[in-house]
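Hey,
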Amino acid sequence: MAFGFRLTRDAQQDLKAIRRYTVNTWGQEQSRKYLQGAREAMELLAEFPGQGLVRLDVGEGVFSFPYGSHMLYYRLEKKQLVIFAMLHQRMVPTEHLQGR
């Protein structure tokens, strides 16, 4: 079943930080490519939300899906995939996702 998707304000802030870091480290073109790939991963998840891993360690109804060096965290709400975080894979999710 295909879902629409949206990003929470926190997830939007995560993407802005990723963009800023990527531009400063690898340049504008690499940043554009990486974020375009992230969007494609989000669209894939909206089409096939079961691709993600159930993350009971993070919270009930939470899933994660890897993209590049990051992990997308999302929930399914009323036929919509809600992406609430995009964290670097080295980050401990339980330390960074409280209140999201």
